[in-house]
Structure to design on (491 residues):
């Protein structure tokens, strides 16, 4: 499995290298990366220490800030395991038929594809607080809870990420509830969470700084946070061990769970008008393996809007903000670009021009216009991207007012169009199931195509949104032409 994983990496990077050489290179990188990160962290904190002491910054303050940054990095990593293509690295692997034919357990696939990467990331992240402790040792004015808090965050959150990846690796049929009920419950719960955060967290923190700052760095708070991380990590470790034991009995089953939208139309009488191509593509998306993840992304967006709305209702300070922070335009555009490109990666696996190339070609050979086919595909992609853009625009409206609401929508259109252009131009390698494999060249090209929009919006010109909108229209037209070319040229 390790050699096969290395072969996939070499194919994606288009490197002419033997698997044996790649194995030695990867092992050398792992061996050198750990001491290198430790030395860099130790040297950096050794340089920071005299400056911090001169300005009166205590070691415990730096340690708590470092622990919170580590918690943020590990939490976002765990969220990526749950809400990105990594969710399908085992259970939805394009090589599932090969693994099943070779009688390979999903546990071996999980250990190679997920566990090694997760443990390596958190090990490197743990070298940062280790370098801090070595540079500040003996650490003055720092209690045991502060040290424990900084040490347990990488370990506990590593267990959380492993547990999330192991749960995603299990091919279990999950009970489905009605989508409307789930959406309503998510919005109501997020609204209550936002109101609670405003009343019980933001309001106390708005008090006097003389009372607030010592409380944030107290030993009691550090010990409580360390206890929470330990409990969560212990629970995740228990689930991880249980799921690892269940994996050999749920490895790449033949019976696939039926999904909404995968069934054929009920009305098949003669003379019935066939559905539009866009409706067929939507049905194809709803019947794909990535559809549950797409639903979770949209539910998370709706929950985020509800939480921000609840926070705004009970917030101790006025919203929207009167004075926007510096580089607010670039931050809004960049955040939407990252989310939309992540969504485009999921759409590419289900209804991408590479995945559906044969079907789209057959449709054109049956007499349908190639421009109509390309427009239908671009329309479905743009609609999905606009869902993310409108959701983000609602959050921006609540936080910053109406001045930035057009940015997420324009950025969403540019993001999906750039992803389509990149996939059709870069021609990424194909997986064994026909879908497009992960391609760094296509990802880099998509980022380059979205860069001009971020730059235009970052200049804060009066005509900036209009210029960005024109660029979005041009890029959408280019994406349509590229999809049509892919259909006609079969590449």
């Amino acid at each position: 499995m390790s050699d096969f994983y290395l072969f996939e990496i070499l194919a994606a990077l288009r490197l002419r290298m033997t698997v044996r050489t790649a194995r030695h290179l990867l092992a050398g990188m792992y061996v050198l990366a750990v001491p290198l990160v430790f030395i860099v962290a130790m040297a950096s904190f050794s340089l920071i220490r005299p400056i911090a002491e001169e300005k009166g910054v205590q070691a415990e303050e730096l340690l708590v800030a470092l622990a919170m940054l580590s918690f943020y990095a590990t939490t976002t990593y765990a969220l990526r395991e749950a809400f990105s293509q990594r969710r399908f690295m085992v259970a939805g692997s394009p090589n599932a038929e090969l693994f099943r034919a070779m009688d390979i357990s999903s546990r071996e696939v999980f250990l190679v594809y997920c566990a090694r990467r997760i443990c390596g990331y958190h090990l490197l992240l743990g070298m940062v607080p280790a370098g801090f402790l070595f540079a500040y040792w003996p650490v003055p004015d720092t209690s045991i809870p502060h040290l424990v808090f900084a040490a347990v965050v990488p370990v506990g959150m590593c267990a959380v990420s492993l547990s999330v990846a192991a749960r995603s690796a299990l091919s279990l049929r999950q009970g489905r509830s009605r989508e409307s009920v789930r959406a309503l419950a998510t919005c109501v719960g997020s609204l209550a969470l936002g109101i609670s955060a405003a009343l019980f967290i933001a309001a106390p923190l708005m008090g006097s700084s003389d009372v607030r700052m010592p409380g944030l760095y107290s030993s009691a708070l550090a010990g409580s946070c360390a206890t929470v991380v330990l409990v969560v990590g212990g629970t995740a470790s228990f689930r991880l061990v249980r799921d690892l034991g269940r994996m050999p009995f749920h490895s790449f089953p033949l019976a696939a769970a039926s999904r909404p939208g995968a069934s054929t139309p009920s009305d098949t009488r003669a003379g019935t008008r066939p559905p539009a191509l866009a409706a067929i593509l939507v049905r194809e998306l709803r019947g794909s393996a990535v559809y549950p993840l797409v639903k979770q992304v949209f539910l998370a967006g709706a929950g985020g809007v509800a939480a921000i709305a609840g926070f705004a209702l009970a917030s101790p300070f006025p919203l929207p903000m009167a004075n926007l922070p510096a580089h607010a335009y670039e931050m809004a555009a960049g955040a939407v670009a990252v989310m939309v490109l992540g969504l485009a990666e999921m759409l590419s696996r289900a209804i991408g021009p590479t995945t559906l190339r044969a079907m789209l070609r057959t449709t054109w050979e049956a007499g349908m216009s190639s421009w109509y086919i390309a427009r239908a595909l671009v329309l479905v992609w743009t609609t999905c991207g606009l869902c993310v853009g409108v959701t983000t625009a609602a959050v921006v409206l609540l936080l910053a007012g109406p001045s930035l609401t057009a940015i997420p929508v324009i950025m969403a259109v540019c993001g999906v169009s750039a992803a389509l252009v990149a996939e059709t131009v870069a021609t990424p390698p194909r997986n064994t199931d026909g879908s497009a494999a992960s391609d760094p060249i296509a990802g880099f090209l998509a980022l380059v195509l979205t860069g001009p929009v971020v730059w235009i919006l970052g200049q804060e010109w009066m005509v900036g949104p209009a210029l960005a909108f024109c660029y979005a229209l041009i890029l959408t037209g280019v994406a349509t032409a590229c999809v049509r070319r892919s259909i006609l040229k079969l590449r």
In short: Residues 361 and 488 are 7 Å apart (CA to CA). The chain has 17 helices and no strands. The radius of gyration is 25 Å. The first helix runs from residue 2 to 13.
